[in-house]
Fold:
Amino acid sequence: MKKILAVLDAVNYKEEQLDAIEYISGMLKANLTVVMLEEINSITPLMAPDFAEGVPGRYYEIVVKASEEKGRIVRENTLALRKICTERGLTCAIRNDRGFAAEEIIFESRFADLVLLGKGLSFPFLFDTEPTGFVKNMLAEAQCPVLVIPEDMSVVKGVIFTYNGTFSSMHAIKAFAAIFPELVAKDATVVYVSEKGHDTIPHEKLLREYLDTYNKNITYKVLSGRADAALQAYVAEKRDHITTFGAYGRSRLSRFFNSSSAENILRIMKGPLFITHP
Structure:
């Protein structure tokens, strides 16, 4: 049984965020832990004694009230989550975690098989782009595979393996197959982008031998053009398939695309995205 760590923003929780988490957890029959995460890098520094000495009383009162209101929202959201999990019959551990959001989950990912993140997951007072800073940090630094899930997740019908012959791309394929063997057996496509006129998939014989142990009917596609643009065009509308990529934002590792291209793909993707690195 796999251990899944699902992350929710404790302040901005909505019931529909549970749908994709419940679906993936049910697919894997996994041991699920849902973390209601509260980012402390917001109001609390303003409440430190040294800072408070220089703050007019009326402003300090506003800060205190805002902090109390935030605490109330977190408590209510946690109770609401527990209630809906009970109503749905979803067995999971639910806990609150308060700290520096990315650091907390990066550390805990060391003890999980898969982290689930909403595509737009962010936290107040963190200045974000799309994808959010929190999601980008997790993809670059998580110590287990990460599955980025859309809000309106479709039934998953298969997997698209992006592959370029590197260790990191093969590592992602192996990690996905170990977690989702049934999906590989159901429907899988390997996508390779021809580089420098080489139309042959690198190490194709060995790749086929490996994947044949999961599914002997896997489709192999060779695309042409710039790798990032070709992949974006191919996977953009694959809402009902999970797409895998090896490595994200790590200059020391050979990876399929640079970080800016990865961010473009994250923006346009309609389906789930599976990213891991050695």
